[in-house]
């Protein structure tokens, strides 16, 4: 379940709404473009949001070119970034203006990137939380019950301290199971946080599947096919990470 009713007022001004499209709403605060490890082009996001009500945030890994390009194409996306820390912890950070996102990126991210790992920087979460106090922004913890190294609840001893210092918990990540998302929603409720939600899309099918889910159109058979496509995309996403590493050493 997408907890749209728990969304912070921070995002309200970014909702593009035309009542003639009242039944066609796409709300996605976590997706990636070709600027990082995704195969989704900004031009597709432009065509996809045409004739829809939407709330959209491009949140590439330690990168903002995708968000800027989408805005240049005329899509009113929330200026955002998925910020990766040195131990693998990630946070979604949203800004009120693209200028603030660019300022933060150039001062606090660009020069601290880990050239071997696209999703990491050489700074820790506590340092970033302190730096972000100087910006008008909204911070959310994504995939809090994620898989492997992203399973923050089990693996990060400092997680409960971080929860107290952020604004939201991502309570629907479409790459995760309903069970894991339900636990995230329970954590959000326990700590009285607002909610974010999104596809965490890296391929077009991720976006389309989440769109169907959010509009109550996803069928059981679709879920099986989505899972198979997801398995097929993992190697391609991995190759993008490897190419990123090799490119930095050219």
Automatic annotation (TrEMBL):
A GO molecular-function descriptor: 5'-3' DNA exonuclease activity
Protein name: PHP domain-containing protein
Pfam families: GapR_DNA-bd
Polymerase/histidinol phosphatase N-terminal domain boundaries: 27-87
